[in-house]
């Protein structure tokens, strides 16, 4: 009987070399293996997948949190006392980390689909751990400094859920190729059954996910309410320093329906506009009164406050990255701004026939005007000559002293509490105003103003929810949104949803059937090869390939008669250029 050692024929595998080289630094063929990956490498693959999912969540968070970037910097300022734009390094590190982890995950999936053994290079392991730990520390820090912002994730799903569903559906459908290859081509084990069961459960959950979320913009067009009124929160602070006359003028130029400002009472009873507790961030108090820069802003008199510059900080810090868009004339005007009084704001609103929303900060108990702040504010309203019906303020305290002025609550209340307190309007943060709550308030004739609304997607879902007005730091952005960014009828969405699910199901079923068919074909081919002469198989393989594509590493036949103990040797002589081979006994003959 003749015992054959098959020819080893190696082909060039550029793509495989690229994938295994970058992922595991295995550029040579002998460094690669198609054996099962070790448990250690499978653990690293799970760590890589976990890092990807965490970074995906982190990147999505910062994408939707752009609406509140200035609020984040303001929170950091209140803790550190120094104004810095912390979003720039966070966005840069998130982009780099997410791109790196995504690239490694794609390479790992290619390894699995090509049947290559996973072997992550040690440098990449350090990189994955660094990205994972950095992201975890970032999540912990944001939760500590800006914990309330996590609510924007749920709010954003009202606008992005239909599109995220299609993306997840596409990803889960694509993963079916790997799952089918693992389940069909391997020997059946309990672990394979578990993998298949988990995949089926995830697939069904994705198919039925639209039943779980509510999107206000999935509605018939005729039910869409009028466009919400836009309130310039502190004017137009992206284009000019907040709470200054030039900022409010810019807001009016961009078509706002009302102006919103933060009011503080000076030590001599003059209401002026200031958001912070101190004057450090938005004035040059550190240069003019260095010893008093940490004092409460209300402890300065109006003459001292008026002597401060309230515009230079905007040009130096560029909090909204808009200074470069300003003209030389605008920069000159901004650089000469002073602190604005309430009287100046109300007179501007009266000339523009605009309404005002005032957020009044009551003085501390030790303040000389602690008991007379209300009269100081009312005096400014009366002196400005503006109609009292056009002035709304929060909080809704001292209602018995307010005659003719509108008051709004800045906290979420039940309908019964609103009726008991005689309130007709609410000013709520967008995270506190759900679609259901808004509909309930409107049904009971309670006007709702939502803040801060700076991004078109948030403005669109509030518009679809029927909100009468929104308060924004970016009226120039919302002015360019004449219609919700997307609006779809329920029937149209149901058609897209069901069609995409059916197409996905057909693709997944086809992939599993194709993998099963490939398995049967491979078994048939192997069974056919067992019935053929190995010498014919080798000679046919050599004859069909050119010397350019085939590198013959080893060619040897060892003949032995295992039944009768007779040993003989024959050597195979190959002539690739002639396409044939012949035997010679005892030696090689031509």
Descriptive overview:
By secondary structure, the chain is α/β, with parallel strands linked by helices. It folds into two domains: 14-218 and 494-520, no CATH class; 229-479, TIM Barrel, CATH 3.20.20. 49% of the residues lie in helices and 12% in strands. It contains 20 helices and 15 strands. The chain has helices at 14-24, 39-64, 69-80, 87-114, 122-145, 151-185, 190-208, 245-253, 285-288, 302-306, 312-317, 328-335, 342-351, 373-384, 415-421, 435-443, 456-465, 475-478, 490-530, 534-543, and strands at 2-4, 8-10, 229-233, 258-265, 271-273, 355-361, 391-394, 406-407, 425-429, 447-451, 469-472, 551-554, 557-559, 570-575, 580-585. The strands form four sheets. Strands 3, 4, 5, 6, 7, 8, 9, 10 and 11 form a nine-stranded mixed beta sheet that branches. Strands 1-13 form a two-stranded antiparallel sheet. A hairpin with a 5-residue loop joins strand 4 and strand 5 (271-273). Helix 2 packs parallel to helix 5 (122-145), helix 6 runs antiparallel to helix 7 and helix 6 packs across helix 17 (456-465). It holds the Pfam family GDPD. It is found in: Membrane. It is a multi-pass membrane protein. Keywords: Glycoprotein, Hydrolase, Membrane, Transmembrane, Transmembrane helix. Residues 228-482 form the GP-PDE domain.
């Amino acid at each position: 009987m003749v015992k054959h050692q098959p020819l080893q024929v190696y082909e060039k595998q550029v793509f495989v070399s690229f994938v295994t080289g970058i992922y595991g630094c295995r550029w040579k063929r002998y460094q690669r293996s198609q054996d099962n990956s070790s448990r250690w490498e499978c653990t690293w693959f799970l760590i890589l997948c976990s890092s990807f999912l965490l970074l995906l969540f982190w990147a999505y968070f910062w994408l939707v949190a752009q609406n509140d970037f200035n609020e984040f910097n303001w929170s950091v300022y209140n803790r550190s006392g120094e104004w810095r734009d912390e979003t720039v390094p966070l966005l840069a590190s998130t982009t780099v980390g997410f791109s790196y982890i995504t690239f490694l995950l794609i390479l790992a999936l290619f390894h699995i689909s090509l049947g290559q053994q996973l072997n992550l290079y040690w440098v990449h392991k350090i990189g994955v751990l660094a990205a994972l730990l950095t992201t975890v520390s970032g999540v912990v820090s944001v939760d500590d400094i800006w914990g309330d912002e996590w609510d924007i994730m749920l709010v954003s799903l009202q606008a992005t859920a239909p599109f995220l569903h299609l993306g997840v559906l596409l990803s889960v459908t694509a993963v079916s190729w790997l799952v089918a290859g693992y389940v069909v081509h391997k020997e059946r084990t309990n672990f394979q059954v578990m993998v298949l069961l988990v995949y089926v459960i995830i697939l069904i959950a994705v198919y039925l996910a639209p039943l779980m979320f509510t999107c206000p913009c999935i509605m018939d067009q005729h039910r869409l309410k009028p466009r919400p009124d836009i309130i310039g929160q502190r004017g137009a602070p992206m284009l000019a320093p907040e709470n200054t006359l030039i900022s409010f003028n810019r807001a009016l130029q961009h078509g706002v329906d009302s102006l919103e400002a933060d009011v503080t009472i000076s030590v001599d009873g003059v209401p002026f506009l200031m958001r912070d507790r101190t004057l450090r961030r938005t004035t040059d108090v550190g240069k003019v009164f260095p010893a008093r820069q940490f004092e409460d802003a209300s402890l300065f008199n109006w003459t001292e406050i008026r002597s401060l510059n309230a515009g230079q900080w905007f040009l130096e810090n560029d909090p909204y990255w808009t200074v470069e868009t300003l003209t030389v004339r605008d920069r000159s005007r901004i650089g000469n701004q002073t602190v604005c009084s309430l009287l100046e704001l109300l007179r501007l609103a009266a000339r523009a026939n605009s309404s005002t929303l005032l957020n009044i900060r009551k003085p501390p108990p030790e303040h000389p005007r602690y008991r007379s702040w209300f009269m100081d504010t009312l005096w400014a309203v009366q002196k400005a000559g503006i109609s009292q019906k056009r002035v709304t303020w929060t909080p809704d305290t001292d209602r018995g002293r307010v005659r003719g002025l509108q008051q709004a609550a800045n906290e979420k209340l039940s309908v019964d509490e609103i009726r008991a307190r005689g309130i007709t309007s609410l000013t709520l943060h967008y995270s506190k105003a759900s679609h259901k709550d808004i509909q309930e308030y409107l049904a009971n004739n309670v006007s709702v103003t939502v803040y801060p609304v700076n991004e078109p997607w948030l403005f669109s879902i509030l518009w679809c929810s029927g909100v009468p007005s929104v308060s924004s730091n970016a009226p120039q952005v919302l002015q360019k949104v004449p219609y919700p960014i997307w609006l779809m009828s329920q029937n149209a969405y149901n058609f897209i949803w069901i069609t995409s699910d059916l197409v996905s199901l057909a693709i997944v079923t086809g992939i599993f059937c194709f993998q099963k068919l490939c398995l049967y074909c491979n078994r048939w081919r192997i069974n056919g090869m067992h019935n053929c002469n190995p010498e014919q198989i080798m000679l046919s393989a050599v004859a069909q390939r050119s010397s350019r594509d085939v590198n013959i590493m080893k060619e040897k036949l060892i003949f032995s008669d295992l039944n009768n103990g007779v040993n003989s040797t024959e050597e195979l002589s190959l002539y690739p250029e002639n396409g044939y081979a012949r035997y010679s006994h005892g030696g090689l003959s031509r």
